[in-house]
Amino acid sequence: MNEVRAKKFLGQHFLTDEGIARRIVESLTGRTKHVIEIGPGMGVLTKYLIENRELDFHVVEIDRESVAWLHEHYPTLDVIEGDFLKLDLTALFHDSFAVIGNFPYNISSQILFRVFECRNQAVEVVGMFQKEVAERVAAGPGSKTYGILSVLLSAFYDIEYLFTVHEHVFSPPPKVKSAVIRLTRNGVTALECDENLFVKVVKAGFNQRRKTLRNALRSAGLNVDAVPEEVLSKRAEQLSTADFITLTKTIESCL
Ligand code: SAH
Prior knowledge:
Number of strands: 9
Strand content: 15-25%
Radius of gyration: 20 Å
CATH superfamily of the largest domain: Vaccinia Virus protein VP39
Number of domains: 2
CATH topology of the largest domain: Rossmann fold
Bound molecules: S-adenosyl-L-homocysteine
């Protein structure tokens, strides 16, 4: 792979607008002092985060050239060289933490699934995503973009679409618009149903989103005998997070 293709593969689009960089950093609510930035690149967000000396601040960056640049410019910063998706967050943080970044768009969904897995520690996420992904995460039932991540994340997070970012403020400009969203952990410590089954039900429903829930859930091997007809004849996108929890409880009662 040549250099240009390799960088493209890493989703590198550097933000060039300082005002937007500051706005992203200021969107952190400060509910935890432990913060990790994913993909700092040339440090456009990093430099504002470093200014806050109260923070226990770390960055994780996969690109060797960016890592070298960061070491040179911020000698005291904890730069973890590697893939965020492989990072053991529970070893790095023993308590709550926040995630921030202008994220590599090719792994946006995986980043959010990691956050969901760490929901008891990841109390806040402020980040830039591809606009479509941001909309999907922030969407409510009934909309076309509503999906697995919207349901799973909204069970545990309050989700806010903060602002849209135009492609011309990046170098090189991406093909798509971007948006910044904020997820803050809500007060739910545990769902009223088996959480693994909840994930399975939500995924099964949306993996075949054009089918009725009866067919989608059955083809995932779930027993839907106790589920009311009016729910089974709906599609996943018509159910709210609360509806999915009720549905999971019903399925659970037949296990
Ligand atoms: N935050 C910078 C760079 C954004 S581009 C800015 O706003 O200008 C995305 C960054 O994520 C790049 O620096 C890229 O090298 C890095 N990256 C890509 N995949 C990654 C991964 N799996 N783990 C950590 N960093 C990654």
